[in-house]
Specification:
It is a single chain. The chain is built from 6 helices and 17 strands. With 297 residues, it is an alpha/beta fold. The protein has 2 domains: 170 residues, FAD/NAD(P)-binding domain; 117 residues, FAD/NAD(P)-binding domain, CATH 3.50.50. Strands 1, 2, 3, 4, 5, 6 and 17 form a 7-stranded mixed sheet that branches. A 5-stranded parallel sheet has the order 8-15-9-10-11, with helices on one face. β9, α4 and β10 form a beta-alpha-beta unit. α4 packs parallel to α5. It starts with a strand and ends with a helix.
């Protein structure tokens, strides 16, 4: 069995950057990804804050990164890593195979959070969605709601405003967590209505979504919408990172070299404990993790 110098799990911006840097350091690299390369970046309609790219879709930026990964010489393995065991060499298990590596970089990102309210699970795929760029076309000319107040929520509301009749953005706080420039664009868009200090308590409908019930300071009211897009952030999937030390929110603790509590296991990107989660910071994490892994074997 081939033993890779560096195994990178997750092909988002952190993972792809790690693969590029590890290859450039002369190491043999396996990049594992169960889906299409790019992570949550591929769901971004427009990215306008990535250096040297004034305006680019998330899909196109992901494709550019992946082409660079391939040119660098990494082996792309389109399989889900379901378990990692360390002790001597690292063993990575997928549903159909087993692989070995001297070091590993966990760049598994986050999974989208759910609201946990009535109607959300029952109407999943029947009006409830977690991806505007994936499902927005189904709601052309219709009324939709976006729940959340970060960059993802505001970006999805702006994207949907171009194809939907109206967009309602719902946020539990009195101000957005999104960048100021995004919030300004949102407020300047005529068919977007803001509902601040509102908490969704139920998504209504029988066979499909018919509305969402909101609670604003104890008073409840219903918005009639055809679709509800949930964009309230994410958290690391816990199964694969069960053995590493984490903070109280479940994010992986690392040192300045992206080392985890497990020997020869590093982490990078949105799954680590940090303040800023952007594509550019994920790339920075990936570069540091790769160089640390390359110098440790």
């Amino acid at each position: 069995m081939k033993i890779y110098d560096v195994a990178v799990i997750g092909a988002g911006p952190a993972g792809m950057t790690a693969a590029i840097y590890a290859c450039r350091a002369g190491k043999s690299v396996a990049l594992f990804e169960k889906n299409f390369p790019g992570g949550q970046m591929v769901n971004a309609h427009i990215i306008d804050n990535y250096p040297a790219e004034d305006c680019i879709s998330g899909f196109d930026l992901a494709q550019k990164m992946f082409e660079q990964v391939a040119a660098a010489g990494a082996d792309f393995i389109n399989e889900e890593v379901t378990a990692i065991t360390s002790g001597g060499d690292i063993t990575l298990t997928t549903p159909s195979n087993s692989y070995r590596a001297k070091t590993a970089v966990l760049a598994t990102g986050t999974e989208r959070l759910r609201l946990g309210i009535s109607g959300e699970d029952r109407l999943d795929g029947r009006g409830v969605s977690w991806c505007a760029t994936c499902d927005g076309a189904f709601y052309r000319g219709k009324d939709v709601a976006v729940i959340g107040g970060g960059n993802s929520a505001v970006s999805e509301a702006l994207y949907l405003s171009a194809i939907c009749k109206s967009v309602h953005i719902i946020h539990r706080r009195d101000s957005y967590r999104a960048e100021v420039s995004l919030a300004e664009k949102l407020r300047a868009t005529k068919n977007i209505t803001e509902h601040l200090e509102c908490v969704p308590v139920e998504i209504t409908g029988e066979d499909k979504v018919s509305g969402v019930i909101l609670d604003k300071k104890g008073e409840k009211f219903t918005l009639a919408v055809d679709g509800v897009f949930v964009a309230i952030g994410g958290r690391p999937e816990q199964k694969l990172i069960a053995g590493v030390e984490k903070d109280g929110a479940g994010y992986i603790k690392t040192d300045n070299e992206m080392r985890t509590s497990l020997p020869c296991v590093f982490a990078a990107g949105d799954n680590i404990s940090k303040q800023v989660r952007q594509i550019v910071t994920a790339c920075s994490d990936g570069a540091i993790a790769a160089l640390s892994a390359a110098s440790s074997d």
